[in-house]
Design brief:
Layout (H helix, E strand, L loop, with lengths): L4 E4 L5 H10 L1 E4 L8 H7 L5 E4 L7 H5 L6 E4 L9 H6 L3 E3 L6 H16 L2 H9 L20 E5 L3 H14 L2 E5 L5 H7 L2 E2 L2 H7 L2 E4 L13 H6 L5 E4 L8 H9 L5 E4 L19 E3 L8 H20 L19
Parallel strand pairs: 1-2, 1-3, 3-4, 4-5, 6-7, 6-9, 7-8, 9-10, 10-11, 11-12
Helix pairs in contact: 1-12, 5-7
The protein binds (2R)-2,3-dihydroxypropanoic acid.
């Protein structure tokens, strides 16, 4: 039997690529922009494995064009870009990279929270523009952090890590909304599980850490922003389509909420004429929450291990659809 053939849709850290090359005949897409959908479809036609990014749409039609494909290993913890049900139906394993990006992502959520609450980027631009003339008793006023209430939407690993930072460091009261009860958060952080309306009404900061799926898409719209405090700060480091971007723009423009910090937008990047880009009370980072050297290396190793396990017919270390095990395609 020859070496398995795989397609990697972008250059990822060498520590992962080297592992893949050791075992597989590997083609890597080297352009700085993602391969178009049609290109991926052609490339996977004779591949055993695909290492994809969150920017690649992996749907049923693409999987149908890949009769030998045994595994899709996503270089991300989120996998909303992949039709997992379609992969499972076709006996294809799907892997992701959980755990290793928890702290980096929670750090970014906190970074956005404090920067938006204290109007840091606005102040920086003010300084650069030469408008800073004197110390201003009434200028640049933001929101306090200590002892306030943080609402976590999606109390998984990353939501917990964000809550831990805010509870431990800033003595914040933690509310959370999730379909699951998180005993650890309740015991260690005195977190209280509440319905979404209560969370929106009582929180000073709302931080989103939930999956994107058909139930959560657009869960933050005009109605939800209206239920929040006028002093509230909204943070999204999960996926852009969880918020309705036009409604968010209007809420920020009209003072319905105080500020927002986003690491994700809808679409990504935002369109150049998106009015959100003109507002002073929003900070937008280019989807970089996991972008530290250590985290991206660790993600590359897991993605490589998932890919190799998939093409060799072994259990994936981080397996999104383990239910496929009994009928997966054989190497
Ligand atoms: C993920 O992993 O899902 C992040 O959005 C990027 O690291």
């Amino acid at each position: 039997m020859g070496r398995p053939k795989v397609f990697v849709t972008r250059i990822i850290p060498e520590i992962g690529l080297a592992k893949v090359r050791e075992v597989c005949d590997t083609e890597v897409w080297t352009d700085p922009l993602p391969p178009p959908y049609e290109v991926i479809r052609q490339k996977v036609a004779d591949c055993d494995g695909l290492l994809s990014l969150l920017t690649d749409r992996i749907d049923a039609a693409l999987l149908d064009a890949a009769p030998r494909l045994k595994v899709v290993s996503n270089y991300a913890v989120g996998f909303n870009n992949i039709d997992v049900a379609a992969a499972t139906q076709r006996g294809i394993c799907v892997g992701n990279t959980p755990g290793v990006l928890t702290d980096a992502t929670a750090d970014m959520a906190f970074c956005l929270l404090i920067a938006a609450a204290r109007r840091l980027v606005e102040g920086h631009l003010y300084t650069l523009s030469g408008k800073w003339k004197t110390w201003e008793p009434l200028g640049h006023l933001g929101q306090d952090l200590v002892g306030r209430t943080l609402g976590i939407v999606g109390m998984g690993r990353i939501g917990f890590a964000m809550a831990k930072r805010c509870h431990g460091g800033w003595g914040m009261r933690i509310l959370y909304h999730d379909v699951y009860k998180n005993e650890k958060a309740e015991q260690e952080l005195e977190a209280r599980q509440v319905d979404l309306d209560t969370l929106l009404r009582e929180s000073d900061f709302v931080s989103v850490h939930t999956d994107l799926n058909e139930k959560t898409r657009g869960m933050f719209g005009a109605e939800q922003f209206r239920k929040m405090k006028r002093t509230a700060v909204f943070i999204n480091t999960a996926r852009g389509p969880l918020h309705d971007q036009k409604a968010l723009y209007e809420a920020l423009r009209d003072g319905v909420i105080f500020a927002a910090g986003l690491d994700v937008t809808d679409p990504e990047p935002p369109l150049p004429d998106d009015p959100l880009l003109q507002l002073p009370n929003v900070i937008i980072a280019p989807h970089i929450a996991s972008a530290t050297v250590g985290t991206r290396n660790a993600m590359a190793v897991i993605a490589a291990d998932n890919l190799i396990a998939g093409v060799q017919g072994r259990d994936l270390p981080a397996w999104v659809n383990p239910e496929v095990a009994s009928r997966r395609r054989k190497p």
